[in-house]
Amino acid sequence: MQFRPLHDAFGAEIIGVPNDLQMDDATFHAVEQAWFRHSILLFRGLRMTPEQHVSFTRRLGPLHIMEPLSMNLPGHPEVFVVSNAIKDGKPIGLKRAGEGYHTDGEDKCIPNAGSFLYAIEVPPEEGDTVFVDMYAVHDALPADIRRELEGRRARFSRIDLHHVHYPLLPALTEAQKLDRPDVWHPLLRRHPRTGRTSLYIGRWARDIEGMPEQEGRALIAELQAFAQQPRFAYRHQWRVGDAIVWDNRCTQHRATGFNDDVHVRTMYRTTLEGDVPIMASSLSEQTV
Ligand code: OGA
Ligand code: MN
Fold it and tell me: Are 76 and 50 in contact (CB under 8 A)?
């Protein structure tokens, strides 16, 4: 097994694993350790069935089933489809998913630990995904800002921002609003497996605890602008057969768009259940 760095600070392509990702425990363990070390892992030239995609992901942790089920692969509720394709007059998946920096499930009490996206059909150009190393963002934050964030949480709100991020989808119903209440997460998040601290923020972040609304929103915008500097990012140009597993606890990502009137882009995603985000503090850092 070999690794090719994708970026100076994070991300690696993993070379030398079977292209259906079925492997023995020792090999799997090495892949998992590499995932924690690099935060995103790229596999190329895969040929996985949905069953193989699911069974590999399940070794990383319990799977999360995305709702509504209509966006999932028929017969495989564990496989969420990101696509602009139409079949028999119906969309086969979610169109324009993830345009805007985010981490999957950040607007839920228990955000998703990781996601594993597999390229089935890609446009001849564009449709890239950008990943951001949020450990590096945290480590580079000016000390006064880091101090300001210490011990604080942000409010993440699907209710406030759904129409902003999903203008093509219908407005949330009252039942959906009850199902997706606002949540509060620590801005400085400690990773349960690596012990490292990242800046935990994304596009559903709305307000900061203990700060006047305007000040909190300005700080969120400032943090996102800081995180979006090219030095923290890896931009992936997809080929069919590529798959990337990313860690939502320490990276952000976004889709970049493409000419979706002309071209088709279809990606299959498995999603891991997660854990309640742990607040990092100077004290807990010392006990790692
Ligand atoms: C996702 C996502 C981005 C993309 O599947 O979680 O944000 O480029 N996808 O498809
Ligand atoms: Mn996403």
Answer: yes
